[in-house]
C-alpha cells in the first residue's frame, strides 16, 4: 500500500470516490442504466455510490435579548464567529442534531424551539437548518471545535467576522422577525458567488 501523497486531511472528503467502499476496486464514473446522472460505479461488485446533499444543523440560542455565537477553532473559517451548527449524523433527527451541535460546540444547555430557517446552498450540495432555542443558563463550555462562546447584543454582532453566509442570513432573518414581533419559518436559496454578507438590519 502506497503512502498518501500529502499528509493533509480533506474536510469534508472529496465527493468523487476512487475506490469501492464494498470491495476496494477502482470505481468508474458514468451514468448507470436507467439513471440520468453520473455516478461512481463498481464494475467488480456492482455497487453504485450515490452522493446526496449534506444537512447542516444549528440553533439560534437566545438569552433575553442576546444571541450565543461561537468562534471557530477549526478550518474552514478558523477564528470567525458562527452560530453553533454542524453536519447531521446518521440516526438522528434534525432537531436532535441541532441540539447536539449546540452542546458540542458551546457546551450550552438549551430548550429547543421550532424550526426557523431552511437555507438551500446547491453549489456546495448542502442544506442548512436553524432552530430557535432558549439558553437554560449562562454556563458555556466550548468544545474542541470552538475557541470561545459568548453572548452578543444585536448591535454587537460581528457581521464582518461571521464564518458563513448562512449564519449571517439566519441572524438577519431572526432580527427582522424579532423586530416585527413574530417568528415564522423561512426558506431561502444562497447562490454561488462571492457576495457580500448581508447588511445588518437597521434598528
Ligand atoms: Zn465494489
TrEMBL record:
Its EC number is 3.6.1.22. This is NADH pyrophosphatase. Gene3D superfamilies: 2.20.70.10, Nucleoside Triphosphate Pyrophosphohydrolase. One of its GO terms (molecular function) is hydrolase activity. Residues 52-175 form the Nudix hydrolase domain. Belongs to the Nudix hydrolase family. Its cofactor is Mg(2+). It comes from Pigmentiphaga humi. Keywords: Hydrolase, Magnesium. It comes from the Bacteria.
Amino acid at each position: 500500500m502506497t503512502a498518501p501523497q500529502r499528509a493533509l486531511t480533506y474536510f469534508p472528503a472529496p465527493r468523487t470516490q476512487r475506490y469501492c467502499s464494498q470491495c476496494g476496486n477502482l470505481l468508474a464514473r458514468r451514468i448507470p442504466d436507467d439513471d440520468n446522472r453520473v455516478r461512481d460505479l463498481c464494475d467488480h461488485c456492482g455497487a453504485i455510490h450515490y452522493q446526496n446533499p449534506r444537512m447542516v444543523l444549528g440553533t439560534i440560542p437566545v438569552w433575553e435579548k442576546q444571541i450565543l455565537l461561537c468562534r471557530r477553532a477549526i478550518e474552514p473559517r478558523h477564528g470567525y464567529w458562527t452560530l453553533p451548527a454542524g453536519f447531521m449524523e446518521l440516526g438522528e433527527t434534525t432537531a436532535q442534531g441541532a441540539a447536539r451541535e449546540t452542546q458540542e460546540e458551546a457546551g450550552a444547555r438549551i430548550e429547543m424551539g421550532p424550526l426557523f430557517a431552511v437555507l438551500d446552498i446547491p453549489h456546495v450540495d448542502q442544506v442548512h437548518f436553524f432552530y430557535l432555542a432558549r439558553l437554560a443558563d449562562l454556563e458555556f463550555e466550548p468544545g474542541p471545535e470552538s475557541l470561545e462562546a459568548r453572548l452578543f447584543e444585536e448591535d454587537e454582532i460581528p457581521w464582518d467576522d461571521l464564518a458563513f453566509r448562512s449564519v449571517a442570513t439566519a441572524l438577519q432573518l431572526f432580527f427582522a422577525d424579532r423586530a416585527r414581533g413574530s417568528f415564522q419559518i423561512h426558506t431561502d436559496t444562497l447562490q454561488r458567488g462571492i457576495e457580500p454578507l448581508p447588511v445588518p438590519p437597521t434598528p
